Each structure stands twice: as structure tokens, then as C-alpha cells.
Amino acid sequence: MKRASIICLTLLTILSCSIIKKPAKDDRVSKPSDTTTQKLTKDNTGAELSDSSKEKEVVISEFILGTGDEIEITVYRHDDLNRRIRVPPEGKNTLPLIGEIQTKGVSVYQINEKIKEELSNYLVNPEVSVEVTSFKGQKIFVLGEVHRPGVYQIDPPTTVLEAISNAGGFNLDGKSSSVLLIRGGPEKPEVKTLDLKKTLEKGKVSQNILLQTGDVVYVPRTFIAQVDRFFQHFENIIRPIVWSEQGIILAPRVEDVFQGESAADKGSSNVPIVIQK
Description:
Elements (H helix, E strand, L loop, with lengths): L1 H29 L3 H7 L1 H20 L8 E6 L7 E4 L5 E4 L3 E4 L5 H12 L8 E7 L4 E6 L5 E4 L6 H7 L12 E5 L6 E5 L1 H7 L13 E4 L7 H12 L3 E2 L4 E5 L1 H5 L11 E5 L3
Parallel strand pairs: 6-10
Antiparallel strand pairs: 1-2, 1-5, 3-4, 6-7, 8-9, 8-10, 11-12, 12-13
């Protein structure tokens, strides 16, 4: 009897140990590390995608519209006010209740705010959405030491490197460490020197800026950061660029502007350059 009791106690002890250990094993298998959870959690993945989408929406909302761009205007709960319009060369469209509104040379955000402001005279807290459905008027210039310099239509968001790639990439003489981004036109130009060599070699994305319509990307043959030399180039880059909806640029000597050389000592005969479609 005593021996049977000892055997029973031994069996109970073994059984209890196995029962206690089993949950620990399950916990170890079912509970991944924090790092794994961050990568695989559905909600987290959705948040990352959402953040990326929001960033793209911000970029598009700040983009300046040009001739040929198409936008869709939605006024919630007022289907009769919804419109899909194309930006005309004169830059103005007519909308119900509002009348004429400027659509060329302004951002999607500005149009959205203007429509809400005007509709507030007729509706209480109007909810408006403006989306770009087609980019047709977004053109930029890629000049200097690239294989196919010219004017290119872009589909935003487009970076400087993407634009240079569309133009055939850098020539052997191109100075990728001092690429010029010129924005704003001859009257109020903003000029930034970009070190795209760091972007290509070290992944420094801050230099790979998003482009806007009318931007000039200029790849020089030599470093032109010095003020006097820069302005000598600057006049040859900006002032000769006169383009029209017919797709023609007039520039004093193609080789001067497109090859990154100074034209101070050369002629100034106009040469037509067809826009790259």
C-alpha cells in the first residue's frame, strides 16, 4: 500500500510538471519579438501605407497647375456642383454659383480653398475635394550636360534625378555635384545648387528635390558656384528660354545653353528647339 502511494505521488508530480511547462512553451511560440510584431502587424502596415499616401497627397496638393491639366471637383451632398475641368491656356474656368475661377498658375490646395470660400456664400460649411485626374501641362527644362536636353512633360511627383534620367542621363563631362535647380522664372528666380553625386553614391535624398512645372534643371560642365561666373551662366540659362504652347524654344545658340558653356563671346542667333514629348 505504501509502495503504491509512492508510485501515485511520483506520477502526479511528473504530470503536474508537464502541465506547468506546456503553457510556457505555447507562450514562447505564439509571442514573437517586438521587432517582428512591428513589421507584421496588419494595423501597423496599414498605417505606414496611409502615411505614404498622405505624403503623396501633400505633394500633389502643393503642385502648380498648368495648361492641359485636368482636375475633378467634388462638392459632397451637392452632385449638381461637381465638375471635371481642363485648365485652358487663358487659365480660367467657369463653375456653377462661383463663376470664373483662376486655375492656371495656382496649386490644387489654393483652388480647393477658393472654391470653399466662394461656396460659403451659398452653402453651410461646404465640403470640397479637388483631385488631379490628368497631368498634361507640367513641363520642365533639362539643360546642359545631358544626352537629350530639352523640354519634358512630367507626371508628378517627379524628382530631379528622374528628370535627368528621362533626358538620357549625365554626359561624361556633366558635373553631378553642382547641378542647378532654377525655379520662378527670370523675374524672381530661386536658384539652388544640388549635389546629386551624394545622392547617387551615398543615398542623400535631401538633394533629390521634387520638381514643379517650369523648373529648369541645369547640368554644368564645370563647377560654377563662384558668384561672377555663376551669373555669367545664369543669364545664358534663364533669359534665352522663351517657350510657347506650340512646343518651340528660342535660345541663342543651342550649344551655348545646352552644353553648359558661357556664350559671352559667341553670337546670339536664335535657334528653334523642338520640345521632347
